[in-house]
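Section handout, structural biology tutorial.
Before the tutorial, make sure you can parse a SMILES string by hand: atoms, branches in parentheses, ring closures as digits. In the record below the ligand is magnesium ion, and the chain has 249 residues. In the tutorial you will relate the predicted structure tokens back to the input. Do not try to memorize them.
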Amino acid sequence: MRATNPILTVEGLLKRYGKTCALAGVDLHVAPGETVVVTGPSGCGKSTLLRCIVRLAEPDAGRITFESRDIVTLPYLELLEVRRKIGFVFQRFNLIARLSALDNVALPLVAAGMAPGEARERARRALERVGLSGAVACRRPGELSGGEAQRVGIARALAPEPVLMLWDEPTASLDPILVGEVLDVMEDLATARDTAMVIVTHEMRFALRAADRLVLLERGAVAEEGRPEEVFANPRSEIGRKYRRLLQL
Ligand SMILES: Nc1ncnc2c1ncn2[C@@H]1O[C@H](COP(=O)(O)OP(=O)(O)O)[C@@H](O)[C@H]1O
Ligand SMILES: [Mg+2]
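Predicted structure of the complex:
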């Protein structure tokens, strides 16, 4: 996967919260269909980076270009249009408790103007892609396991057919036994290469299996990046060596 002609470019991204410098000049390039795993210690700016890309957080300086559009200065209505092309999977599922899995996935499509019948059909296909079909699609979030609920969250992000998906620690709030089923779905999507992905996770074995590139963040800056197997074989930074040791446990 070549980094020329990226779908997303982040340059010199800076974000402060009061005296805290959450992002201290981050650069990131993502090619169409590419899977980039971002990791680093708690508080290093991973969530802030993802949030700035869709302007859930407002950057203080730097450039973000998505499909040749300057995200930082984009007027709000155009930003909403851009957000429809970007799927976001959160750590917590944020499903609506009184709606079925199917309707949770279909609702954003209807809100964006799609006819309900077509939206449900799309939702059904998205749920099938994450391994949820038949009776499970009719259940409400309270009747799903954590892994199933997160897969509904993934289907909801997939259904609008985004060209870029952002994942913020999608397995972090799951029981360890349920993590595997979500990682399997993520790996299938990542290796299909039809959607670019930026995945924040601490699952380094997943990074080795599925990522084209691994980005290690530390104190709001990129400490190291490269192909995961190269980063682990020959880490150049202290944090790279730390993550390699974790992987060998
Ligand atoms: N809304 C906020 N208000 C104040 N400080 C914040 C806010 N969001 C994040 N921070 C701070 O910015 C830094 C980076 O946070 P975050 O991006 O959430 O890190 P990570 O996701 O890597 O754990 C941390 O020091 C955090 O406390
Ligand atoms: Mg975070």
